[in-house]
Input
Amino acid sequence: MDLVFFALPRHDGDYSSTSYSLAKELSREHRVFYIENPFTYLDYFKMRSNEEIKKRKSALLKGKDVYTKIEDFPNLTIITPKLVLPINWLSQGEFYNSLAKVNDKIVFKAIKKVKKDFDLKDFIFINSFNPLFGKSFIDKIGAKLFIYHTVDDISQAAYLYKHGLDLENEMVQLADLTITTSKELKKLKSDYGKYIYHLPNACEVELFKRAHQDLPKPDEIKDIEGKLVTYTGNIEERVNYSLCLELAKQHQDKTFLYVGPLNSQEPEKNGLINQKNVRFIGARDLTELPAYLKYSDCAIIPFAYNKQTKSIYPLKINEYLASGTPVVSTRFSDDINDFDDVANLVQTDEEFVLEVDKAINEESEEKRNKRIAKSESNSWSHRAKEFWEILELYQKESGAKLEL
Output
């Protein structure tokens, strides 16, 4: 059974994504076609000198060279659609809907090309958190099964919220089944679809276990002699920056390293970025992260308590655990509570400040091995197996015959 993903994250994005990680793992035994979120004409104008645009130029402008192969995943094909209209700024209404149909035709054309070029007949179509596209063609693509995959609370996603909230709920209604990455998301979508299943995030365990190997110390931290506390991932509104500032002030003997794209002005506004023991080094490729974690004494998830974080199962928790690094995190969601046995979970900022020292000082080989074992039970290979188990369960509950 072939699988066609239409996903919001692009394969070469600044941080690891659920959609692409799952697609890669499923491609180990199945052909997987990963259609990336389209760039708009406005994106092209603003970013035309960026490498991510330059290497896609032929596909974006002419519809040529649209396929990209991934060396380590021979069954995985990346597809770049042509440019689409920038319409997110428009208000809801007929004009937006008519232009959305124009954009849908562009994406649908890419899907039809894939079907023709690769002789797709029996395939599963998965819209992974990209409800801005597909409403007008979902009944025309000829998939044996349509799955909607939600990975975040879309009501809290700044760009997607305007049109995406209503469109996502419609997608859940249209889908044969919906898969959610967190328990909270399953609750949120249960009013819109009959068949809602929970498939948590996971980790590329073997990649992050490289932190146990003899990796060279990254240049950005070569001069650090004291303890190193690290955060990896997108640096945006889910982070509690007042807590991060307090950590830096209360732990002057440690260096706090933030690895990931900086998509918030808060670190500058509250002075975090100017602290002498704080370093923001920007985005790094996923394959580079194990080296930073290898030399880290503690890894943190200082998430705030809000509606967005309540629905999060963070990819980084298992990445940290696979590296063997002690973890301190707030109890921001039901899902993070499942890691109470291997991470130092706290309720308040005050507890967090104290727990960093505790996590470092009470480290042991037994705790390290327990963390690694926990991550191994949350690998993407396990999630791929659970994905097919969900489809088997769906068949039993719905009476559908998929011949998986």
User: Anything to note?
Assistant: The chain has a mean pLDDT of 96. The radius of gyration is 22 Å. The first strand starts at residue 2 and ends at 7. Residues 217 and 387 are 37 Å apart (CA to CA).
